[in-house]
User: Fold this.
Amino acid sequence: MKALQLIKYGEIKDSLAFNEVSKPTVQANDVLIEVKAAAINPIDKSIILGNLQSIIPISFPSTSAYDVSGVVVEKGDEVRHFEIGDLVYSRVPQEQMGTIAEYIAVNSIAVSKKPGNISFEEAASIPLAGLTALQSLEHVGIKENDKVLIHAGSGGVGSFAIQYAKSKGAYVYTTTSTDNVEWVKALGADRVIDYKKENYKTIVKDADIVFDTLGKNYTLEALQLVKQGGKVVSVVGPLDEESAKMWGMTDYKLPCLLYTSPSPRDRG
Ligand SMILES: NC(=O)c1ccc[n+]([C@@H]2O[C@H](COP(=O)([O-])OP(=O)(O)OC[C@H]3O[C@@H](n4cnc5c(N)ncnc54)[C@H](OP(=O)(O)O)[C@@H]3O)[C@@H](O)[C@H]2O)c1
Assistant:
């Protein structure tokens, strides 16, 4: 079968090739998916460029990407919840990475049935960005009436985060560029901040949660903006050591940063 493989680190045009590879064999808990659609995310680009070598080491050649949708064409002996012919989608586990291929074997625990009202392409676009949004907001315990600032509301992660936060009953501020203002409003955001015309720091007040999807100065500004007792969650890599120490953080090297602003009493 054919698969898109990373053959070395570097620029995308030099580092990828369609290769002929063996069709995967299923383990007891796997389903074999005939791939109909696959999606790429910023992490795939970072892997190709070699920026994540220390946390995701790659042996070349390696088939690319994590998101997939398709049809179950084979299943392992222990698989109970899927049948041949089921339409499914998945964010595949790290060790099974490689969705841009004709077939992929995936542990069935990481697979769901595709809703009937979305296409294969739509289904493949959901898992990694959607899970990132959902897990980040759950990580900080989002709840009804929370005021939440979601940066980059028009992005893959931000667009899911807006919808998830609204479904939890939160009040959502989001930042986006002029062209995407109407679109993120339609997703449900309560106050859309056009960052080309407005300064979010003067608009957002008493945020219970800031979801940082932009990094650098946005992470530091989130720490300043969140109200006392509020939380910052970031999916844009670790904070630098000096800033982390200044904010009294100990877990700042985690890829997903979580910060709880001390309550007034703790601040003294
Ligand atoms: N996708 C994932 O599954 C995933 C998982 C973990 C971590 N992450 C990280 O999360 C970040 C976002 O990922 P993504 O997949 O959502 O990226 P994306 O789909 O490429 O979206 C990025 C968005 O950022 C917006 N943007 C750019 N500058 C902005 C600014 N100054 N203020 C507000 N919005 C701005 C752009 O929208 P406008 O045109 O409106 O400016 C764009 O839609 C990346 O750093 C990525 O590495 C992503």
Summary: Residues 263-268 have pLDDT under 50 and may be disordered. The longest strand covers residues 30-39. Residues 128-267 form a domain with the Rossmann fold fold (CATH 3.40.50.720). The CA atoms of residues 224 and 261 lie 9 Å apart.
